[in-house]
Amino acid sequence: MTESVPTSEILTVKQLISSFDWNNTILGSQDSWPLNLQAILSLVLNTSSPMIIYWGRENIALYNDAYAKLIGTKHPALLGRPLINIWPERKAHFNQVVSAVYQKETIRYTSNYQIPGTTHQHSTPTQIEVTYNPILGDQNQVQGMLSIVTESSLSTTSPTQTIEQLIGGLAHDFNTLLAGIIGNLELMQMRIEQNKADLLPRYIHAAQKAATQATEITHQLLSFSRRQILTPHIVDPNHTIQALLDTFQNCIKEDKDHIKEHINLQIQLEADIWSVFCDPEHLKNAILHIFQNACEAIHSSNGKIAIETHNIIITPSHPLRKFIDHGEYISIVVQDNGIGMSPNIINRATDPFFTTKPLGKRAGLGLSMAYGFTKQSNGHLTIDSNPKAGTTISLFLPRHYNSMTIHKLNSNPMKANLLKTLLISQDNHLCMLLSENLKDLGYSMTIAQTTKETFTLLKSNSQFNFVAIDTRILPNTPTDFLSTIKTNNPQLPILFITGYEETPIIFDSFIREQNFIIRKPITHTVLAECIKAIQDSKNHLIS
């Protein structure tokens, strides 16, 4: 690996993997790598925890920047090669690990560790915990191993518990979802060859559903590892809950416990609910995770879940005053009559990776993400519960005082000559996808691939309704680039398109009511909702 990269050039692991000629290895071209390898590698590269994949019986190593720092002078020699070629002194131990993992066992051990290449005079051994977990294929066969390293000295919680919950939940979820995607794609291909096109919609729906769930897990992980930022829009809380009604019913119907099918869902929304300024997708996810927890807590045939919204005023003497500023707030309350929680569980319920579910059932990120979202939105989350008496979880978000106008967005190709957008991207797949979707939404699209093209087009055409920026194309000084756009076009909304953001603070000064972020993978529905928000923001500014 080292021969292909100049030693004077410091590259990230992601760049090293992208620039390496894999055709000369047993893995072959990256385009031909198995889908589950590509998905897990994306997860590994986009997290801040030291992780390494050993793929196939040859144990080809693929890891992230955090792991590279941990192995010191062994990087980049280890990348793309078997561990025992670079670390022969660990051959006996590693072979024992491989043998056990390929029997579908999880191996975990703790030891003192010193980064290779450092001397005892200049470094202190660190206690680490290493966990090896099997990566399963769609036929439930072991295809490789995923290892995560935790520095015990830096952890205030049990590394064992953290790793077990993370790997158990994610491995189970991802393997299930990947099997759903791959299996349905195979069925679609078979039915096309059999001229049975009438059966395709059911497979398409199933594959889309699995892919959407996988996307939600990835977004949670990126948010937990602080690789995502909140993108606030003006939000109607009642509208958000109404948009989730079908999802709530699906959660109830899909539970294998027949008792859950009879859960009585009650919705009571305050008629003149105040608007809030928060990330709409994170709000949806927070409500959905709380609802899922409520469903799982119900073990009787008279199960009930009530969802309510209220306008409330936090006075200086209000009990919540010690957590949030006094003022006007909206509350979203989810109440169930399930098994409830003990005080000890309530105290830990919002801890990352904490879950009372069996290993492999849930990753334990839901309530942690909901709590983190509300705090970042200058709000608060409370849990009121007693064993066998049910649970009430309330989200409090500050009122947004500017008026909100909701407009219905419909596809209208007749508007194509009136509505225009500028896309700044060098990704051909993204350009094609957005061009087709925006056309259906009534927009024509112009593409700029360089900074020079961008400023030339913006100067010559002042009729763009918004500009979309693929964050991967941003120059080394993105703030200068973005500031120039906003200075010359102060009323022009910006739509940032991103799947992973290493330094989200870059966008802090650019996130306003008229600027937005859309996260990959992009779907027509998500894009339509974002375009609607952009149109609403322009109408709001005009009014």
Automatic annotation (TrEMBL):
Q: Which Pfam families match?
A: HATPase_c, HisKA, PAS, Response_reg
- What are the residue boundaries of the Response regulatory domain, all occurrences included? 420-535
Q: Does the keyword Kinase apply?
A: yes
The record's PANTHER family line, in alphabetical order, gives: SENSOR HISTIDINE KINASE, TWO-COMPONENT SENSOR PPRA
Q: What is any one GO biological process for this UniProt entry?
A: regulation of DNA-templated transcription
Which molecular function terms from Gene Ontology are attached? ATP binding; phosphorelay sensor kinase activity
Location of 4-aspartylphosphate modifications: D470
Give the first-level EC class, as a single word. transferase
Q: What's its EC? A: 2.7.13.3
User: Which organism is this entry from?
Assistant: Commensalibacter communis
What is the official name of this protein in its record?
histidine kinase
